[in-house]
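RETRY 2/3 - previous attempt timed out on the joint model. Re-submitting the same 360-residue input unchanged.
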Amino acid sequence: MPDFDLFDFYRFILTVLVASYTVVKLACFMWRWQSFGVDDPRGVGLLRRYLIVQLLRTRLRRFMPDVAVIGILLIVLLLLIGAHWR
Amino acid sequence: MGELTDSSSTSLSELPHDTLVAYAGELGLDVSEETPRGELLRIIRERQELLVGLDRDALLDVVVWARLPVRRSASKETLASHIARVNKVSFEGLSDRGLRALAGLRGLEIKPRDTRASIEMRLRHLEGFWPKVRRRRRAVMGWLIARVVERSEEPDDYRFLPEQENGLSLKEHIAESGVVGGIAQKLRGVADQYVAEKLDEIERRIDRKLDEIDSRLAEWRDREVSNRLRIVKITLLTAIVVAAISLGYDCVRERMIRHQPDLPSTTAAEESSD
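RETRY 2/3 succeeded.
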């Protein structure tokens, strides 16, 4: 009888589903923004420029604590994933 | 400070130190509060002498080349103070006399036999290494952002700022157009002025409203960025919890597998003792 592990199967299915969902969502997001960045009607162009200016005016220092926490969490996650292969 | 243009050296030396520093700044000179008074007076006089010697049209050429917002009737001092803030080192479109005037204002001694190429080279050498690096970095950034934000359009022809109009007095109006015509013109002028003031007021209100909308949008943007970052944090925490459970499961399973071969031997030992 083959060695079947329910938890391994669950992990595999979860990985496939989450990866597919992420890829599809990311592709939709990038396609939407790409079309927004290329569209030429005057209103869209104006909005695009305004958004770019707003983006450039964002003060990154204000979000530094959040970004630092995200960085730490990311490192912890990578260590945990790395520990699976040891 | 414009009245200082024709001031004698005596009146200049009587001025307080901070006024002299401010005046030097208006002349486009780079001085600080720590500059000794004698030195300050000397460089101000030198700059005044230089301005007297410079051709006004040459300064206007520089203004047009650098597209500075000034009136055609601006004094030499005003032109010099505007030109002093220009750091461009690409002299394309600048006339020869303009180039010589610019070199003079940047402190170079220009002789009549100096060629255009040599003056341009000397002006470029005036720029230090780091300012050059900064300028190039800004140029690249400007090119990138302008590509996204602006369309590639040819710049319009340069235009000087409109001159300030001094309204004629009632006496001059009547002298020009007669009693009725003069009074009518004067009244029309007053009405125009009133309308202009009202339009300015409306413009100011619109500007205030736009600023308010802008600040609200900025708040919304910051809130949105914070929310997105919070979602990323929650997602990462969930992923960490799942990864920890998975790792725990792996450890437990590994330990169980390691202990499994021992199980038959222990049971055999128990059976033999019985």
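The CA atoms of residues 11 and 17 of chain A lie 10 Å apart. Closing ticket.
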